[in-house]
Amino acid sequence: MRILKIHFLLLMALISVEIKAQTTALLPQKVFDFIKQKRFDELFKLVDTSGLTKDFLASQRAQMETNFTQFGKVKKLIAIYEDEAGVKKRYSLCIQFKKEKKNIHFTVNAKQKIENYSIKEFNEAPFFQLKVYNGFAEVTDLTTEVKTRDGLTLGANIAFGDTSKQKSPLVIFVHGSGISDRDETIGPNKPFRDLAQGFAQKGIVSLRYDKRGYDKHQLTKQMMDSIDIYTETIFDAIDAIHLAKQFSFIDTNQIYIMGHSQGAMCATMIAKLSPKIKGIILLAGPAKNLIDVLPEQARYMALLDDTITNLEEMQLTENKWLVDKLKNPTELKKMPKALLGGTGYKYWQSISNFNQVETAKSLSIPIYILNGENDFQVIMSEFELWKTELANKANVQYKSYPKLNHLFLETVGERGMKEYDIPGHIPQYVIDDLVQFIKSTY
Fold first, then answer.
1. How far is CA 37 from CA 43, 69, 120, 208, in A?
2. Distance from the CA of 429 to the CA of which of 45, 49, 281, 395 falls in 20 to 30 A?
3. What is the CA radius of gyration of the chain?
4. Beta-strand (E) ranges in 22-180?
5. Helices 428-441 and 191-200 sit at what angle, rounded to 10 degrees?
6. What are 277's strand-pairing partners?
7. pLDDT at site 316
8. Domains of the chain, each with CATH number or no CATH
9. What is the full DSSP assignment across 236-256?
């Protein structure tokens, strides 16, 4: 199994290409016409090249043509699918090539430009479909905004069911690594949207917001150069807490932070810096320092097919070299951004100095730690380490799920990054466990 290089594995984001368009309504058909007519030079002239080197652009131009010609001649456009993605829209072109059918996914941002194109296996339902969970039949999903302390506006939604009888607890969702929308969309899956739906139908209000950098045009160069784990994640979550005061049906004394992956790691510090937080929920949160988790992820992925090839062994060695650099402050400052996932050394320095376990030990509020036993990104040894390190803490509860992966979806055979392309939903039993924890502490 091929191993993703560490900086890609952490960020879980493809390098984006941006194509100028006159309108999003015409864009899907326009993209199809370019692909069908093999007008790749014209297509690539529309790419936003700001901040990209000439060498990189040349490789991307070549890769684009390879991507769209490898399946043979384009026969016809079968369908165009559209999906809301916060301040952006996502499209999927279902195309019949000579050899097979494929879905071409791309995202259109608020600037009417295309980001993150990718080629996926054919699927007649490529985007998220709502699931009805047990509880209230009606759910209101209200669009709102989170204002950050440094002047950003993060698109958000607050979801709730029947609020007529009493004030309700609030859960604020905190994202994992990489650029993510408010639903934490990954392929056709929206785990935060699932959780919001399930909570609302059980009488619990939730707030989810676009992660900093999702609308990248808001960010200044200074913001990007100085970003660390606090400005990327922790401070925005704390600023989101203030939004709760605007809604009379929220009990502001009963606010919970639910973090996923890196967001779970950060939830401990969010709670420490926000004394009014009632409790925290850690979904697939690493216990070790995130930098030390990266090589474990890579090796676990390599062993999913029970073998490690010579190429994979070379990549593992390269990953170890990179980790050693990340942990050395002197070497870290010398490293180019290209090797740091596009971030500066301050970001990785803040990661290196972060200790979520020690922070958790200082908390007296209820803590709920959950993990999927089929998670290849935050493996079960991390879950067991939480239990060992916090063994004397009476305020901590634990739960693991045999069938679930990193997104808390049941695995259905495909392992590795491809499993995230399989549509699924958070199971009802996970919703029920989370609701039980909140209501028992509430």
1. 10, 11, 21, 41
2. 395
3. 22
4. 74-85, 88-97, 101-108, 114-121, 140-147, 153-160, 168-174
5. 60
6. 255
7. 79
8. 14-121 (3.10.450), 140-289+354-441 (3.40.50.1820)
9. HHHHHHGGGGG-TTEEEEEEE
**Type of residue at 397:** Q
Instruction: Find where tokens 């369908």 sit.
Output: 79
The 74-85 sheet, strands edge to edge: 74-85, 88-97, 101-108, 114-121
Secondary structure of residue 120 in the 3-state scheme = strand
Q: Write out pLDDT tens, residues 264-319.
A: 999 999 999 998 899 999 999 999 998 888 877 777 777 777 788 878 788 778 77
**Mean pLDDT, the chain, as a whole number?**
87
Helix (H, G, I), strand (E, B) or coil at 68: helix
314: helix, coil or strand? helix
Tally the residues of the chain: 442
Q: Are strands 205-209 and 153-160 parallel, antiparallel or unpaired?
A: antiparallel
The half-sphere exposure of 422 on its side-chain side, counting CA atoms within 13 A, is 15
Q: Residue 141 forms beta bridges with which residues?
A: 159
* Residue at 230: amino acid letter: Y
β 250-260/277-283 pair status: parallel
C-alpha distances out from residue 70 to 35, 67, 80, 99, 207, Å: 12, 6, 21, 9, 43
Going by C-alpha positions, the residue among 32, 40, 47 that lies closest to residue 103 is 32
Residue 425: how many other CB atoms lie within 10 Å: 22
As beta bridge partners, residue 173 has 258
The answer to pTM > 0.70 is yes
**How many Å apart are CA 77 and CA 82, to the nearest integer?**
15
Which range of 4-13, 33-42, 97-106 scores highest in mean pLDDT? It is 97-106
Q: What is the pLDDT of residues 348-400, one digit of tens each?
A: 889 999 999 999 999 999 999 999 999 999 999 999 999 999 999 999 999 99
Rounded Cα–Cα distance for residues 317 and 30 (Å): 44
**pLDDT score of 8 more than 50:** no
The span from the CA of 297 to the CA of 279, in Å, is: 29
Kindly report the backbone phi and psi dihedral angles of residue 13, in degrees, each rounded to the nearest multiple of 5, phi listed first. -140, 135
Active-site positions?
A: 261, 375, 406
pLDDT tier for residue 338 given thresholds of 50, 70 and 90: low
DSSP state of 230: I
